[in-house]
Amino acid sequence: MHFAQAVFFGALFPTFEFNIHTPRETNTMQQELKENFGPLFEKALLDEILKVGTLKHIPEGVVLMDIGDYVKAMPLLISGAIKIVREDEQGDELLLYFVEKGSTCAMTLTCCVGETKSEIRALTETETVLVMVPIEKMETWAAKYKSWRKFVFKSYHNRLNEMLATIDNIAFLKMDERLLNLLKEKARIAKDQRIRTTHQEIAFELHTSRVVVSRLLKKLENLNELTLHRNYILLKKK
Q: Which residue pairs, CB below 8 angstroms and at least 24 apart, start in 205-208?
């Protein structure tokens, strides 16, 4: 979803306010944390996250953090996916990477630690469940918990590899190959071969024109890679 079409959630990261949970909500968050982060974090850290974190259910297409925002909280993904994009001076976007469950955004970590403004836009690719953690806990947990330090370093490592893959795609792949890779990634994240998006939205993500995307989609259809429908693209399994 392009910025002009996106829905704001009150700039969730920058202006986020932590809520008091009901016992039922606390129990739900405890179960979600244990299932998704139990293998990564020791029990004491999970207990601290449960104490200070807030569980949020965010619809698809919501801007969580925008360029120029200061970050007041960081997300731990329980389910769904967040799309991280850059924007040029003309307002055109380029997709950098996706953040998925059991992870967090390295760019958000950087802003938290450095207390700097965000240089990226983060928005939900699918319906997403997050646990939001106040940034003042970042340094405390880094000093206190080895598992948190490993989680942070691994997040940086994974995001760096994804950024390198994005650079490789731009530098070494033809636009039709980049387009097919993007569609496959969207299908994998959504767990659905039907990709509900527009030609214009794909063009924004690939930093190209809608005309080029439409032409290449037709080419891929002729190559039996996909089928074009009125409201979605059906990616064929190989």
A: 205/85, 205/93, 205/94, 205/95, 206/94, 206/95, 206/175, 206/178, 206/179, 206/182, 207/88, 207/92, 207/93, 207/94, 208/175
Architecture, CATH, for domain 3-170 = Sandwich (2.60)
Question: What would the CATH number be for the domain defined by 174-235?
Answer: 1.10.10.10
- Locate 115 and state its tokens: 């207390």
DSSP H or E segment with residue 24? helix 23-37
Q: What's the mean pLDDT in 122-146?
A: 91
**pTM, 2 dp:** 0.80
- The predicted-structure confidence for 151-168, as pLDDT tens digits, reads as follows 989 988 888 898 898 899
Q: Write the DSSP assignment of 51-90 as a string of letters.
A: HH-EEEEE-TTEEEE-TTPPPSEEEEEEESEEEEEEE-TT
pLDDT at site 11:
43
